[in-house]
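Can't paste images in this forum, so I'm doing it all in text. The chain is below; anyone willing to post the predicted structure tokens underneath?
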Amino acid sequence: MHHRIFHYTNARSLALILKSRKFRFTRLDQFDDVYEAQSVGKFDFGQLLFASSWTTNEEEDLPQWSMYGDAMRGVRISLPQHPFKWHRYQPLPGDIAVETEIPMPMDQAIGETYKVRPFYERSHFFQEVEYVDDVEAIWQSRVILTGANSFVAEDPCALARFKGKAWSFQKEHRFVLMAQGRSSKHSEAAVPPPPPFMHIDVPIVDEALSNIQITLGPLRAPADRLIVEALAHKFAPSAEIKESKLLDAIRPR
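Text version of the structure:
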């Protein structure tokens, strides 16, 4: 079992995370790997699935720093593995979901124009990404079309946990949510429409933020540390700020 999880980003995103006390989930068809968001029949799951990407690798990773850590000038955030609070899901009239949970308050999970789907097993929320030869073939094998407007899938969120082998260097783990659009009358189409947004911001529990660790990028400038220290002082005073183990080991270009 992993005790801490790690996320590489820039100081601007860190500021938004600390101020809002939320972590952003991005729609799958907006990720950098254009092949991981697939459609099966009429169902465009790339518009229905939202993910937040992490790694459990404690060792600093140069490709991650380079690609996602603002060209090694950003930060690596570390949190306890379970930074979200679970709530009992309260089904809408006509929903079949009972005794399920969701990692956000109900007033954020269901709105007039959207609905975030609940989980039957919270253990499914955070899982390791599997790197495969053919992402499309995996999706086709896991979604069974039962008609023009219906399908069966054991766990649609699991579809977001397959990527091509070229991305295996990421050693990625993901939190995944599924959301769909809905009308103000609470009716739902047979083919679920996408929700009217590209991101879902999920609250982080106070205990997780009080245990946040922030590692500065190996090419950070002196001013970058001052900025991060100021952010932590204002929004997360108990944060631990660390220098990269690769500081002074990489020649800037």
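The chain has a mean pLDDT of 90. The longest helix spans residues 222-235.
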